[in-house]
Amino acid sequence: MLNALRASRLPSRVFPGGLTALSILLFSCNLTLANTQGQGKGEKEGMEEFEEEDPYTKGKDELVKKLGYVRLGHGPWRPGEDTRTLQMNLGGIDMLFAETEHFCIASTLGTYKIPNNRDERSKLKDEIKRLKKKLGRLKEPKKKLDPWLRLHIFAQRAEDHYAEFCEDFSLTESDFKKSGPHMGYPNKIVLVVCQRKSEFGRYVRNYHNSDIEYAYRTVMRNDALFVAINIEAIKEGREMETELPFDTMLHNMLASNLTTTFMDGYQDNMFSAPRWFVYGMSHRNLRRIDPHWTLFDGRKENQGSKWDAWKWSPRVYNLVDNGFYASANDMFTWKKYEDLHQRDHMVSWSKTEFLMDELEGDKRAFLSAICNASGGFSTNQNDDELVNRQKKALKDHFGLTPEEFDKAWCKWVKKTYRKR
Fold first, then answer.
1. Cα angle at 267 between 186 and 155, to 5 degrees?
2. What pLDDT, in 10s, does the model give residues 38-62?
3. Distance of CA 280 to the CA centre of its chain
4. pLDDT band at 13 (very low <50, low <70, confident <90, very high)
5. Sign of the CA dihedral 123, 127, 128, 132?
6. Cβ distance 95 to 72 under 8 Å?
7. Does the pLDDT value for residue 32 go beyond 60?
């Protein structure tokens, strides 16, 4: 049986602004040498060496463009820094790089043995078919994904999530004209996908002054959005479970972090978007990929992980049937992750699905109304202002009061979800 992915770790909520220009300069001058020296030969031994040339495009411009890349391989990374500097700052390890329409991507993912998992095999087959259609020729791997193919797959996934978010809220390029073309920011979204916690740790320490070990995301005002994830953190404690779909789990981590970052960066709101809707959208988009592997769902370490913990619909049904759920008025007051219990994450997911997929209304206007720039961070907001902003948005763009919204949602749950 499948086990739900443990989600005891809290999502990263890092204060915006990041490093100062002076700090970045000092890191570039001093930490490059320190990191390169700090990673001795012993650590590099046994690491996979990546092919220098992408075997799928062979460096041909027409094939690179067919995959939707602006650039494939080394080149500019961030303002004032190129990919080789980034590589040195992460210890000189092998890395692959791609620049898409909206992302600058760095990957240290190694060869992946495809597990004997029907769902993941089917999912990968569909994703590789899409790449093959773009390239014209691509032999479908039966047993392993090499590092270059993994880069192509994750680049495709990243742009998919960007497009899906825009489609969900009917966002177009014109919505970002004034602020910047990349979800409203002038510079492309930075995505770092790591094989090991070691290079992930170097990245978040050197560039974001963080010691988080799982996944990282932040927003830099008037600059860019940032997301970093690593697969080793997911595999911890599962070393003997070789047939688990770790690539799918990493994809879920990507979807969760991109969605929450899009929400917390939209219109430069700087983490002031309502928590229930941020996490509700995250769960909705993650569960579109594979609902078996949940992330950041409020589960505590001692709650364990039952084989059917991913089955949220019947649990929400029971909560509604017993009248034991957070009302919209209560949800509108939530300011931080810790305000939500596990059942609150399930209810947030369900109410978000109901609002996004069932209700008639102006979703783009609703998003803009609840994500207005207010000085940043939901925890800094006045309680009444936070609640009233959401009440007004719900009434203006869906024609419902919080009480009417809850009543309609409860009716939908009882009709749609199967009782346990």
1. 55
2. 444 445 666 899 999 999 999 999 9
3. 13
4. very low
5. positive
6. no
7. no
CA angle 308, 310, 313 (to 5 degrees): 100
State how far the Cα of 224 lies from the Cα of 262, in Å rounded to an integer.
11
Which pLDDT band, with edges at 50, 70 and 90, does 333 fall under?
very high
* Bridge pairing between strands 103-107 and 96-99: antiparallel
CA–centroid distance for 397 within its chain? 27
**What distance in Å separates the CA atoms of residue 295 and residue 256, rounded to the nearest whole number?**
7
Q: What are φ and ψ of residue 10, in 5° steps?
A: -80, 150
CB-based contacts of 403: which residues, under 8 Å, 6+ apart?
A: 327, 328, 329
Residue 283's SS3 state is helix
Q: Torsion angle, CA of 331/333/335/341, rounded to 10 degrees?
A: -40
**Alpha carbons 376 and 385: distance in angstroms, whole number:** 13
Backbone angles phi, psi at 94, to 5 degrees: -65, 135
Angle value at C-alpha 51, between 112 and 96, nearest 5 degrees: 75
Please say whether the beta carbons of 119 and 248 come within 8 A. Answer: yes
Residues in Cβ contact with 175 at an 8 Å cutoff, skipping those fewer than 6 apart: 184, 364
| Predicted pLDDT at 27 | 37
The SS3 of residue 73 is coil
Residues 275, 336: contact at Cβ < 8 Å? yes
Q: In 10 A of CB 174, how many CB atoms?
A: 7
> Is the distance from CB of 144 to CB of 78 less than 8 angstroms?
no
| Cα 162 from Cα 128, distance rounded (Å) | 19
- C-alpha to C-alpha distance for 255 and 252, rounded to whole angstroms: 5
- What is the phi/psi pair of residue 74, to 5°? -65, 150
Question: Between vectors from CA 213 to CA 160 and to CA 184, what angle results, nearest 5°?
Answer: 35
Give 361's Cβ-side CA count (13 Å radius).
20
> Full-prediction pTM beyond 0.85?
yes
Query: Who contacts 41 (Cβ-Cβ below 8 Å, separation ≥6)?
Result: none
Rounded to 5°, the CA angle 318-320-322 comes to 70
What percentage of the chain carries pLDDT values higher than 70?
85
Distance CA 56, CA 72 (A): 11
Instruction: Tell me the one-letter amino acid at 294.
Output: T
- Tell me the average pLDDT across 295-302: 71
- For residue 102, give both structure tokens: 């909206």
Distance CA 217, CA 196 (A): 17
Query: What does 92-121 look like in DSSP terms, one character per residue?
Result: S---EEEE-SSEEEEE----EEPPS-HHHH
